[in-house]
Amino acid sequence: MPRWSPNGRDRLVDAAMELFRERGYEAVTVNDIAEQAGLTRRSYFRHFPDKREVLFPDTSQHMAAITKEVAEHLPDAPARVAVMATLTQVGRFLLRDVDAQTRRQDLIDESPELQERERSKLAEMAAAIKTGLTRRGLNSIEAHTCAVVSVEVFRSAYLQAIRSHNSATFDAELNASLMTVSRFVADA
Amino acid sequence: MPRWSPNGRDRLVDAAMELFRERGYEAVTVNDIAEQAGLTRRSYFRHFPDKREVLFPDTSQHMAAITKEVAEHLPDAPARVAVMATLTQVGRFLLRDVDAQTRRQDLIDESPELQERERSKLAEMAAAIKTGLTRRGLNSIEAHTCAVVSVEVFRSAYLQAIRSHNSATFDAELNASLMTVSRFVADA
Question: Is residue B173 within 8 Å of B156, Cβ to Cβ?
Fold first, then answer.
């Protein structure tokens, strides 16, 4: 039995992670997840539109917060400073349970279907950053490019922290990843 | 009737573009495309795995060429120089018929389904560049990040050239896009 949880969504996520680990992502159905969580298929679909989504946090509220932080953090500093401060917060939030994130990433790494969904989620994050950057005065084209670069810097640092099983390295990885981009485009 | 074409694949692409423009992407079926091209549904699926793919060029051979060019172009120059030279060639190749590319991009811009496929194609291109960069001596993590940044620089320049209906601006747009990244990450 899954451990008690007051929240249907959390129970479904826990049940899914447990079943995916036992049987692999492909072999598990939505019905299996609902049953394991002691809920119905119908309540599963009240929380998630499909099987993939159970592995992705509900980010609708976070996206608005990301836009606001990028737009408003230290308004006179370079845009990069606001983006890096925002990404630091996002990383710390996601990595508060680094072991759970590691198990989740292992599942994604094995499934092209999940990788496709992950790309969509990263594109959403880039869109949120882009909106924040346009509010700082960047034009739409520049904002898009800088947002995509920022998300890649984030993704790389996040993966490094997960692979080292150490959330404390995230801030350093974020700076190292930015430095990698900086060296690559230097004297352009 | 579609204009005569010696090649089934080209006939299907032309037929699809014509029907998508008339009726919109969603309303057209694979059967419609095959019929318009004077071919069978079965021969459609010999060329393309699904409806989306008819809008994307067959890039399997190009990817190997991209890897090789990134790995081998001016081996003593900075990696960025090799990537930019490679992207310039890819852009010139794709933009040899800028009007067709504009119509294609208009369809993609209207369909989340096509945008998802486009993201997958850009991820393939990033993987090809990444492999080339590792052959130049970058580690896997750095190579991944630099490849994603490169693809974004490319995508931005390509869209700008399409929107201005002028393939001649591509090289300048490519440099401008790289400069945007450079300014963003400066004094990191």
Answer: yes
- Contact A120/B116, CB-based, under 8 Å? yes
Q: How confident is the model at residue B3 (pLDDT cuts 50, 70, 90)?
A: very low
Residues of chain A positioned with their CB less than 8 A from the CB of B87: none
Neighbours of A137 (CB within 10 A): 11
Nearest of B174, B187, B184 to residue B80 by alpha carbon: B174
- The alpha carbon of residue B49 is apart from the nearest alpha carbon of chain A, in Å, by 16
Rounded CA separation B88/B158 (Å) = 10
Q: Which residues contact B123 (CB under 8 A, 6 or more apart)?
A: A119
Looking at per-residue confidence, does A187 or B86 come out higher?
A: B86
Interface contact B179-A188, CB threshold 8 A = yes
Listed ranges A144-153, B18-27, B157-166; the one with the highest mean pLDDT: A144-153
List for chain A the helix, strand, coil content (%; round to 5).
75, 0, 25
Question: How distant is the Cα of B8 from the closest Cα of chain A, in angstroms?
Answer: 30
- Residues of chain B positioned with their CB less than 8 A from the CB of A109: none
The whole-number pLDDT of residue A187 equals 61
User: Which ipTM value was assigned to this complex?
Assistant: 0.83
Q: Is B114 exposed, middle or buried (0-12, 13-18, 19+ CB in 10 A)?
A: buried
Contact check, Cβ <8 Å, B149/A152 = yes
**Tokens 């990028």 map to which residue?**
A70
3-state SS assignment for residue B56: coil
From the list A47, A42, A60, the residue with the least C-alpha distance to A14 is A47
* CA nearest to A113 within chain B: B120
What is the rounded (10 degree) CA torsion for A19, A21, A25, A26?
A: -80
B188 to A178: CB separation less than 8 angstroms, yes or no: yes
| 8 Å CB contact of B152 and A149 | yes
Nearest CA-CA partner of B54 in B68, B37, B71? B37
Residue A37: what are its φ and ψ, rounded to 5°? -85, 0
Look up tokens 């800088």; give the residue. A146
Residue of B nearest to A159 (CA): B141
